[in-house]
Amino acid sequence: MCLAIPAKVESLEDGNIANVDIMGTKRRISCDLTPDAKVDDYVLVHAGFAIEIVDEEVANQTLEIIKDMPEFAEIY
Question: Which protein family is named in the record (predicted)?
């Protein structure tokens, strides 16, 4: 199963690189597939790529569902 996780864009760099926050973890990802992403946008991240820009409400709902998954219960 593949899972794309919502992340908040914190900053953008040259070369379509974004620094994002994924549930408190900071990562550098590619925005080649979402060149319109801006700081403070939420994007779905899969395999190091932002694959879609999503609404903040949808992102937060998805994060709550992910936090309820047994695999994450010990982390959060």
Answer: Belongs to the HupF/HypC family.
